[in-house]
């Protein structure tokens, strides 16, 4: 549950530093929602006790029932945090590496969405996820139960996009950066991560530098080519 824990721990830290009145509000709401199940959430989010106090001990149950109890408790926890006046967005990156318990929890959350004002956004590398990958199997399971999923395909950047990005970054027109954008596309194939790393490297090495007297960014495209940066 590492990714989920990180997201909700950050949210809980934000809630605990709110004013006394708001802290009392969240404490009462969480205690009412979780009741005796609070300990199931505290096991993965220990800083929940900073907001609502110590949780009552949980009775021992078989492993399968324990996971089901946790799923119910976590849904109650999310329900308490999300409302029409306080919607909740959960973003999870690199889902291609998510473990089985995390995927089962996500299935439960999405299938149990009801009237909750919650949007779960998950990002993953589709070149690492085939039809038999656990993530794809989880997505299929959610769809079979009429869970609502929208898929957005994010492809590599084209030359036009790279020109726009570099022009915005260097505060100049697209024609000025055309040759630099073409070189960046050649080096990165439009991969956004590689592109940002390449531009950062060119700046750190002084290949892209700011001309203070002229008030503009400058570079020598032929010098960059001669460097042979991969």
Describe the fold and architecture.
The chain is mostly helical and 230 residues long. The chain is 54% helix and 8% strand. The protein has 11 helices and 4 strands. The protein has helices spanning 2-16, 20-34, 38-42, 49-52, 63-81, 100-111, 134-144, 159-170, 178-188, 192-204, 221-227, and strands spanning 88-92, 118-122, 208-211, 216-219. It has a two-stranded parallel sheet with strand order 1-2. Strands 3-4 form a two-stranded antiparallel ribbon. Strand 3 and strand 4 (216-219) form a beta hairpin. The longest helix has 19 residues, at 63-81.
Write a concise synopsis of the structure shown:
With 230 residues, the chain is mainly alpha-helical. 54% of the residues lie in helices and 8% in strands. The model has no long low-confidence stretch (mean pLDDT 90).
Considering the chains and any ligands shown, give keywords for the structure.
230 residues; two-stranded antiparallel sheet
- The tally of beta strands, per DSSP, is 4
Structural class: mainly alpha
- H/E element string? HHHHHEHEHHHHEEH
Mean pLDDT: 90
Main-sheet strand order equals 1-2
Oligomer: single chain
Shape: elongated
Residue share in helix: 40-55%
Distance between the termini: 36 Å
Q: How many strands, which pairing sense, and closed or not: the largest β-sheet?
A: 2 strands, parallel
Total number of helices: 11
Strand residue percentage: 5-15%
Low-confidence region ranges: none
Radius of gyration: 24 Å
Layout of strands and helices, then pairs:
Elements: H1 2-16, H2 20-34, H3 38-42, H4 49-52, H5 63-81, E1 88-92, H6 100-111, E2 118-122, H7 134-144, H8 159-170, H9 178-188, H10 192-204, E3 208-211, E4 216-219, H11 221-227
Parallel strand pairs: 1-2
Antiparallel strand pairs: 3-4
């Amino acid at each position: 549950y590492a990714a989920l824990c990180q997201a909700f721990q950050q949210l809980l830290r934000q809630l605990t530093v709110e004013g006394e009145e708001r802290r009392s509000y969240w404490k009462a709401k969480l205690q009412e929602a979780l009741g005796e199940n609070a300990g199931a959430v505290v096991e993965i989010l220990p800083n929940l006790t900073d907001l609502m106090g110590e949780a009552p001990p949980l009775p021992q149950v078989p492993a399968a029932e324990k996971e089901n109890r946790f799923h119910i408790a976590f849904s109650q926890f999310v329900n308490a945090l999300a409302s029409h006046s306080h919607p909740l967005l959960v973003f999870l990156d690199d889902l291609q590496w998510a473990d089985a318990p995390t995927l089962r929890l996500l299935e439960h959350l999405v299938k149990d969405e009801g009237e909750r004002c919650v949007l779960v956004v998950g990002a993953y590398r589709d070149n690492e996820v085939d039809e038999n990958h656990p993530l794809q199997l989880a997505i299929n399971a959610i769809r079979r139960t009429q869970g609502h999923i929208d898929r957005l395909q994010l492809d590599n950047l084209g030359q036009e996009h790279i020109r726009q990005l570099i022009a915005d970054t260097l505060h100049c027109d697209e024609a000025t950066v055309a040759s630099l954008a073409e070189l960046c596309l050649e080096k990165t194939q439009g991969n956004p991560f590689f592109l940002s790393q390449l531009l950062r490297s060119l700046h750190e090495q002084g290949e892209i530098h700011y001309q203070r007297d002229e008030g503009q960014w400058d570079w020598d495209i032929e010098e960059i080519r001669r460097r042979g940066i991969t």
